[in-house]
Write a structure and sequence with these properties.
The chain is α+β, with helices and mostly antiparallel strands. The protein has eleven helices and 27 strands.
Length: 543
């Protein structure tokens, strides 16, 4: 029941149509006009074939409606509406052809309604069709072509709306829209070498033979779109038919991990199910030999609607909870076939985890990355908060950044949305500490060390490093002093940055072997914005 895909024969007719239109622009002979007659006759036959194919699909809809009205009615009504709209346009074009025959050769309506293009005398007349369809100005058309254009535009919009509202198969409606014709936008005319209106491109200064063929082609396109649409709608119901060839029991639950006190919900159904035929679903221990329930049958716990059974039970004790049963489906001969199923779910106490990505402490003034999770809960359903600081979402699922500004403790509270209700998953305490002081380095040396004279003179300044600390933090040296014995006394030179000043450099040039050089009064600032005085470096100049 295909809806009328474009055949190789149709493509060939379209190619001939373009060639003949080009030749008409060159004012060639009546042989070309007769060729348009031949094309029009082929299009008329193709239109009749489309009508026959669309009638087959429509009849199949009627049968499907009788078999299962509930499943079919929505798609049947949409298809019926599309066919009605297509017939209205087809009738309008048939009347338009008759009016053209009447207008061009002054034929009576009875003759114009039945005459064939091959018998029409004024096939080369282009003034009368242009005046009737366009008017005097091709870019300000006032003729019948405007009415046709509006009907085609509305039909395209209506058919697309009906398909989108009814077809649920992923990508089907979008694919249909992409291939849908009947566009009436402005187009580029190869003959005029400019963009022109749809009606101008088709009907302006075109002989009657070509105009009639154009109209037949539009009928063809309307019927083709009609067929594609109703076939797509019919596939929606045929694809969901209940089939009894390979049936299997299925149990589907949103989650198999449930918190104490919450409800566990699962859907129990036959994989190839029908929303208009409800199976019987019984809970109980199934005998694997007889395929029957042993002992007491629970036939009320599973509520069945539209072919799907929903099992809901209030959870109590913790641990793995199992349940088994049978799905009984009515066969075409009115007997029942049974399909066993089994499933399980885990019940646990409410629990959550807030894991610091660096260490079990929050540091003041820096970004503290943490990952927050809760067993059985999606990260998007968590709602954490913090006292004694701020908590902001980071890049990945469950990832956050904590900032604290002071105090000794921060508390992270974790809430979760479970089955539409908000539930507390726990609170977590963290110590709050200041970032430790960095260590001053001079020429790669720290504390009390030796340094060569050459190494002393090429060193550019002082730097600070955090040692044995997981955070990658930077401290900037803001000032330091250099003190050493010089000229029989003690000399000190200061820098207000991490760089050695010229005064300090001159002082270092006087250092001799055995001279003590002190890098002291070192001040550094970290990402928390606090100025710190840190221990300096004591050096002894060697060879």
């Amino acid at each position: 029941m295909a809806g009328g895909k474009e055949t190789p024969r149709q493509k060939m007719i379209g190619m001939m149509y373009l060639v003949l239109t080009a030749l008409l622009a060159m004012n060639v002979s009546k042989d070309i006009l007769n060729a348009f007659v031949t094309i029009n006759e082929s299009l008329v036959k193709t239109n009749a074939n489309f009508d026959a194919k669309n009638d087959v699909t429509s009849n199949a809809f009627e049968i499907a409606l009788l078999n299962d009205e509930r499943k079919t009615k929505q798609f049947y009504n949409a298809a019926k509406s599309i066919r009605s709209k297509a017939k209205d346009i087809d009738k309008f074009i048939i009347e338009l052809k008759s009016e053209l025959y009447q207008h061009v050769d002054k034929l009576p309506k009875e003759t114009a309604d039945t005459i064939k293009l091959a018998r029409f005398g004024s096939k080369d007349n282009y003034d009368a069709p242009t005046h009737y369809l366009i008017g005097d100005d091709p870019e300000k058309a006032t003729g019948k072509a405007i009415e046709l254009k509006e009907k085609l535009s509305n039909f395209r919009k209506d058919i697309l709306g009906l398909v989108k509202a009814s077809v649920k198969k992923p990508g089907a409606a979008a694919s249909f829209e992409q291939g849908l014709g009947l566009k009436t936008d402005r187009v580029y005319s190869l003959f005029e070498e400019m963009e022109v209106s749809w009606e101008n491109n088709l009907f302006y200064h075109v002989p009657l033979a070509a105009v009639i063929a154009h109209l037949s082609r539009i009928q063809n396109e309307v019927k083709n779109c009609e067929g594609d649409a109703i076939n797509l709608l019919f596939n929606e119901i045929s694809a969901s038919d209940f089939k009894f060839d390979t049936l299997a029991a299925k149990v589907v639950a949103p989650t198999s991990y449930v918190l104490t006190g919450n409800e566990y919900t699962s859907d129990i159904f036959v994989a190839a199910f029908s929303t208009t035929q409800n199976p019987q679903i019984w809970l109980g221990e199934v005998d694997s030999v007889t395929n029957k329930i042993k002992g007491t049958i629970d036939s009320t716990s599973v509520k069945v609607s539209r072919g799907i059974g929903t099992y809901t039970v209030k959870t109590g004790g913790e641990g793995l909870q199992k349940y088994t049963g049978l799905i009984r489906v009515k066969s075409p001969d009115n007997t029942y076939k049974s399909y066993p199923f089994n499933s399980s779910y885990m019940v646990a106490r409410p629990a959550a985890s807030v894991s610091p990505d660096k260490m079990n402490v929050f540091y003041i003034g820096v970004d503290n990355p943490v990952t927050i999770t809760a067993a059985g809960v999606a990260p998007s359903d968590l709602s954490p908060s913090i006292t004694g600081g701020s908590l902001t979402k980071s890049s990945g699922p469950g990832q956050y950044i904590v900032r604290v500004s002071g105090g000794t403790q921060a508390v992270v509270n974790v809430g979760a949305k479970i089955s539409g209700n908000n539930q507390n998953m726990g609170s977590f305490k963290f110590r709050v500490k200041r970032v430790p002081d960095p260590v001053a380095y001079f020429a790669g040396k720290k504390g009390d060390d030796k340094i060569g004279k050459g190494e002393l003179l090429v060193t550019q300044g002082v730097m600070a490093k955090l040692e044995n600390f997981d955070f990658d933090l930077k401290f900037d040296i803001k000032s330091f002093d250099i003190t050493m014995s010089a000229g029989g006394g003690i000399a000190t030179a200061s820098s207000n940055s991490n760089r050695i000043t010229s005064e300090q450099a001159n002082l270092l040039k006087n250092a001799k072997t055995g001279t003590r050089v002190f890098i002291e009064n070192v001040r550094a600032m970290g990402p928390d914005g606090v100025m710190r005085k840190i221990p300096g470096v004591n050096l002894k100049v060697g060879q």
